[in-house]
Structures are given as C-alpha cells and as structure tokens.
Design a protein that fits this description.
Largest sheet: 7 strands, antiparallel
Number of domains: 1
Number of strands: 7
Number of helices: 7
CATH architecture: 3-Layer(aba) Sandwich
Structural class: alpha+beta
Distance between the termini: 30 Å
Shape: globular
Radius of gyration: 17 Å
CATH superfamily: Class II aldolase/adducin N-terminal domain
Length: about 230
Amino acid sequence: MLEELKRRVYEANMELYKRNLVVYTFGNASGIDRERGIVAIKPSGVDYTALSPERIVLVDLKGTQVEGDLNPSSDTKTHCRLYREWKEIGGIVHTHSRYATAWAQAKRTLPCLGTTHADYFYGEVPCTEVIGDRAIEKDYEEETGVQIVNAFAGIDYRFVKAALVACHGPFVWGADAAEAVYLSVMLEEVAMTGFFTALLDPKSTGIKQSLLDKHYLRKHGKESYYGQSKES
C-alpha cells in the first residue's frame, strides 16, 4: 500500500511539472495513508527531472522521517499540520504558480468574480495574514500551517480547497494528491482570469450568491447533475 502511495504522489508531482505549475525544484505534492498515519512527499530540493517513485519520502504525521534516503520537502510540517487539522483531506499541493502567487504576494484574497471560479471554489480563496516574526522564529513551516487554518475561520475547507499564504504562494488540497493537483491547475486559471478582470475593472464585485450556488452545487452538491452518470 505504501509503495502505491509513493507512486501516486510521484505521479502527482510530475503532473505539476507537466502543467507548468512548478519549475526546477519549486513546490511539492503529498498524499496520506490515513490508516497508517503515513505521509508521502517530494524530497527537498530535488529537480523534477530527477524524481522517481523510489525517491519519494515517507514521514509520520509529526513530520518525522520513517523511510527514504533523502530529506523530505522543507514544507513537510505545513502539510502535516493540515493533515492533522483537517481529517477529510488526502492530498496537498504547494506551488509557486505565477498568478496565484501574485495574489499571495499582493496579500490579497482571490475573490469569486465569475462562474469559472464558482465551478471549483465555493467563494473567495482566502489569503492568510502575514506571518509574524515570533512564528517565523518558533517553527516557520509548522506556523505556516497554523496561518492557513486560521484563515479558514468561518470557511469550510471541504468547499474551498485552497489558500494563499501571504507573501509566499498557494496551498491546495483534495481527496487525494491527484485531486489536489487538478485543483491547483484550476486555481491558477481563476487567479489569472481574476487578475485580468481586476485590471479591466478594479471596481468589479464578486459573483452574486444565487449564481455562485448554482454553479458550485450543480457540480458538487447532493443533487449535482454536471457530467455523466456513473452508469454511463
């Protein structure tokens, strides 16, 4: 089972590279085996062209390495914090994708301006507060996870599966690593269209609630009807 987890996490990382969401050694994808409490994650500082399933590192939920010759990603404690806090997520992705990172560097929440955004995120994607010096000195990566969780006060992480870390970049999650990658692609797309919308009309307001509800729920609601039935 853990070998399969490592393979899926490897494939998720390579999909980030294929989709141009990462360059050189930027970013990372992880996945978790909830039954064993084991996280598989990209090794730190390893170029995607040199990555293989065997080089994926295993850690426990505290971030302690349990398998692998390479050091795990420097963002491992952030991933582990989110896995501990939010029990329904099975994969996490962190990138420095161009447009999403631009919003994060501007310390701006990504508003839901249209139906493309609403198809994937039920409302605005929050931006964290800028991390304080004490938190940086205490345990930077762990505290980054805390910043993300704090940004979701009053927001359901199951319906908005992404956050912008101020001055840093996006973290995205899903049922598994593959979904987290997919939503990272969608986040970058809506971050780009949001950027151009704000450029064309700085006074643009968010989508109205009824339209947000319609587009999100027709894909993700209990009575969703988008796509083909499982019997098809």
